[in-house]
Amino acid sequence: MPAIKALPENVWSRIAAGEVVERPASAVKELVENSLDAGAKRITARLNDGGRLRITIEDDGSGIAFEELPLALMYHATSKLAEISDLESILTLGYRGEALASLVAVADVEIRSRQEGDESGGIIRTHDGRITEHVRANCAQGTRVQVSNLFSGLPARRKFLKSASGELRRAAVFLREYAVCRPDVSFTLEHDGKVIFSTDGSGDKRRVLSRIWPEGAEIQTVKIQAGHLELECWFQSRAGISGRGDVMAFVNGRAVNDSVIKSAVATAARELAGNWALFFTLEPSLVDVNIHPAKSEVRFRYPDEIYASLHNAVKSLGSPMPMPEAPKEPARIHPSKPSGSGRISRPGWNFRDNPATSTGHIPPRQIEIFPAIEPEEREAVNFMGQNSGGYLVYDTAEGITLVDPHAAHERVNYERIKSNAETSRNVQKLLVPVILHPTLALEAHEFEPALKDSGFEFADTPSGVELRAVPSIGSIEFEPEALLRASLRALKNNHDGDTRNILWRTWATMACKASVKLTTRITRDEALSLWHELKECEQPYVCPHGRPTMIELKNEDLLKRFGRE
Ligand code: ADP
Ligand code: MG
């Protein structure tokens, strides 16, 4: 690797800034990306207590020169970028020179490394943000980074970490994506000394996918060329099965959570329900990866080509069974993450590794996944049903919980809309643009900056002004024009204040009105998805109007009330 250098200010000030390390999984992601950038062929991630106690990433990559170890820990020091023009052609996963420095700020870090060709290597240790040791040492070629006591000096941050299993699950999702994207690299994930999964690095993508996706259905693959981009699409049909499949998207080898791809996949999935792994390749200058600190969002120069490539992929894969029509009224709960947060791929594994297949054949254990990853968090609840009054009844480890579906759905929608407005502002492209009435077009023109800022997109065409995109505001689909009219009304009536604030509050009110009713019959999948989404909310216990979303009957209370204590 080239030498590590401090970036000049005019370069680092152009790099999307923000927090890189917000939880153990993000530390794992940054460190694994460093190993991949260093050309590693074997990467082992070891987590203790979900990474809250310790994270160790070991690789056999090119290593760091002894003298450069202190530099690697500095902010804005990197071997991957030197000039502004390099930002146009980023091919490495990292380039900001921030990950190690951010880790040093929030944890104790130890790096052991030996550079390719060097006789000996070195160790560097930090505590409380300062280097405490830097000595030569014998070590294997490659790098081992150990991060201990993450956020120990920041109790407020620590409190927000999920349970060990939750943190492990998040880290495992990243590792799984890398395993799919880089079948030529062998990945191992260990938790508290137990191997959670490993890949053999044989380079066979189908083999990796066939172990991650459910057994049975055939995995198809097709390559598409659309304008400036190439799409390698892997697909496993789940025809007839409701709910969203597993979607993984990679752009030039980087896992992304991108709204253009998301909405293109949503359109494609309406015709072909299934699991998708999408690998887009295009000139680095045609995609901007420098818009999000975690580098998971990108901006395409020609977003239409993303749609075109997926459209062609669906055509050549053929449409087996149509997806069941999504009910329009009343609004339903889609089992999805709040928009603007998380990644495009569904969190958690949708596959349980059972070596004894129906044919009696025991497949090679390329990936081993023990079901302990996820279920601790996700299976702790059992949906019992909906009572005649409309309340949902759940059986949990703590007791019985009654949920008001309307209040709960209101809370979930409210937080989605809020987080979308505050963070990524996801955009929903309209497949069929709406031509605006001339009066409406004039009004839209008047408030164009605020509307554009919140995700509306317009285009002047010979037939009039077209509405091409609207803000994506959670699971509820509004008529695009109704959303525009309501937003305009709010902007007209509120002369002062932050327009983005005004708008998301308006949408939140609309979403409340469109939330499922107490009388809506809820399916089991919807009920479970509502439960998990509610639990992910910042304030799960009350609806935006302050009414309770749930009532808990604790086991202890039940015992008492039945006179068993
Ligand atoms: P970035 O990856 O954006 O350059 P980091 O803070 O993650 O910033 O890393 C700083 C530098 O340390 C990298 O540019 C690289 O030169 C070096 N480095 C970090 N991890 C490794 C590793 N596992 N193997 C080799 N070099 C590494
Ligand atoms: Mg890095």
Secondary-structure arrangement, i.e. CATH architecture of the domain at 9-198: 2-Layer Sandwich
Sheet with most strands: 8 strands, mixed
Q: Helix segment count?
A: 17
- Over the alpha carbons, how many angstroms does the gyration radius reach? 25 Å
CATH class of the domain at 9-198: Alpha Beta
Widest beta sheet: strand line-up: 7-6-5-8-3-2-9-10
Helix content: 25-40%
Q: What portion of residues belong to β-strands?
A: 15-25%
CATH homologous superfamily descriptor of the domain at 9-198: Histidine kinase-like ATPase, C-terminal domain
Global outline:
globular
> What are the segments in which pLDDT stays under 50 over at least 5 consecutive residues?
13-19, 320-372
Bound molecules: adenosine-5'-diphosphate, magnesium ion
Distance between the termini: 67 Å
Structural class: alpha+beta
Return the CATH topology of the domain at 9-198.
Heat Shock Protein 90
Instruction: Count all strands and give the number.
Output: 24
Rounded average pLDDT: 78
Structural overview:
Among the domains are: 9-198, Histidine kinase-like ATPase, C-terminal domain (Heat Shock Protein 90, 2-Layer Sandwich); 213-316, Ribosomal Protein S5, domain 2 (2-Layer Sandwich); 427-471 and 479-513, Ribosomal Protein S8, Chain: A, domain 1 (2-Layer Sandwich). The protein is 31% helix and 24% strand. The chain contains 17 helices and 24 strands. The chain has an eight-stranded mixed sheet with strand order 7-6-5-8-3-2-9-10, with helices on one face. Helix 11 packs across helix 16. The longest helix is centred in the N-terminal third of the chain and has 18 residues, at 164-181. It is globular and about 75 Å long. The structure holds adenosine-5'-diphosphate (ADP) and magnesium ion (MG). Adenosine-5'-diphosphate binds at residues 1, 4, 30, 34-35, 38, 59, 61-64, 72, 78-80, 94-101, 143.
